[in-house]
Amino acid sequence: MAEENNLKEFTKGFFQYNPMFVLVLGLCPSLAVTTSVKNGLAMGGAATFVLVCSNYIISLVRSFIPREIRIPCFIVIIAAFVTMVELLMKAYLPPELNASLGIFIPLIVVNCIIMYRAESFAYKNKPFVSVLDGVGLGLGWTLSLCIVSSIREILGAGTLFGLKVSESYNPASVMIMAPGAFIVLGLLLGFFNWRKLKKSEKAMMEYMKND
Amino acid sequence: MLNQVQDKSILIASASPHIRDTDSIPRIMWAVVLSLVPAGIASIFTFGYYCLYVILLSIVSAIFTEALILGVRKISVISTLKDGSAVVTGILLAYTLPPGVSWYIPVIGSFFAIVIVKHAFGGLGNNIWNPALAARAFLQTAYPAALNSDWRVLQHGIGNLFHNITEIDPEGNMVDAVTRATPLAKEAGAEAYHFTQLLIGSVPGCIGETSTIALLLGGAYLIYKRYINWYVPAYYIATVFIMVLILPPQTKTPWANNPFYHILAGGLILGAFFMATDMVTSPLTKSGLIIFAVGTGVLTVLIRFYSGYPEGVCYSLLLMNTATPLIDRFTKPRLYGARIKKA
User: TM spans, by residue (chain A) (predicted)?
Assistant: First the structure.
């Protein structure tokens, strides 16, 4: 039973609680950095690292944090990890990748996905499940970032991971500009909502049949 | 059957509308198609038959995309296709493209117009923006190079009707087409065109926008059939006239303050008669339509005078399309017998 629950805490981040398509959280970096798959992966990786570590630490110290000042405490913990990520990325990642991610790495401090999980999960649960929750949601977000950014990179730059997709394709540069981000995200959100609607309709039909 | 009808005819209290006429979506759409034909013919005389290819390609890909998306949405394909709205979108999109564009530009444009602008918002009647214009704006951002070049005109007009302008070698002796600046170009030394040229349409420009006479012919037909209002184009053009007279232009071109030149050159006539009058994306009431037309006119001149773009019809119409629900809310007619609350 417990193991089943653990698995559920891990997998819910992919579909049921997908941060981008279901929770619709963290849209600012989602729209801004998804111009190429490399950016999307780096952003997702950084946020996942921060999410897992902050979930773990917050869950460990949750009984010491007074309820009244929990948000400042979360921010201090999250900011510590963001600073670490920022310094690590500056040290080991190629400079142009750092330049294109720019301000969005320090802004992970106020990323609503991380705040949301700290407040509504890690503050109430044990360290191990909090880590699972962080990994699941972080990977779910990374996956969504990769979907959006690969669509945008293929259509807008004609490349994937910087490699040319086709010689004859003339890329529509609008897709790696702001309008392209909104169009792709809007269509994907529409698709996920449509799927959800279908599912609930189906469940309703089943329910009525059984009645 | 007859008895049944007679039995019921005494006391029927059906919901409105009580007065029906024969107008329907297909009738209006095909009338619009017919009214756009003269401008298409004029463009073939001006740019050669390659632009006919662009127009046909745009129409075919619009119809194909519409059929595809109707199939996906499980709406009856044939009966909806017959209403002709996809054909109108295809033609209008082609009319806003330069005559020498590559084949994929109208195809991508039609796809965007039908899938994103029209069906993603719920299909015909639910779109916020005019599909053709929004697709044109998308292409302008996606392929700026392709949409700002290829302003070619046949030099000898009708004589070279069947000469494909893309096959002409620019360095060869047999030059049949020349690339020249569009009438509204802002660069220094841009030439002014004669008014007869602007009326007939033998000037560089987008496929369907150059021939003022052909467009007016189509517009007059639609006004005569009462499918469009006379006052939307009239207020739009009058606003442009006044704004050109009173605003100080930024560039020192010879026509900068000539209102007649600004009305005849560029896409104003096409936009005023065929795009500002789009029933779906313009306000419902007469006062709303007038606000819409005046707003579009003001924005058109502002963009032409003070922005980096030479032409402002497309963007001004899209902006006013966006404002249409707001205009509708402000110009909602008072219900009969209802009192206006004092704030």
Answer: 42-61, 73-93, 99-116, 128-151, 171-194
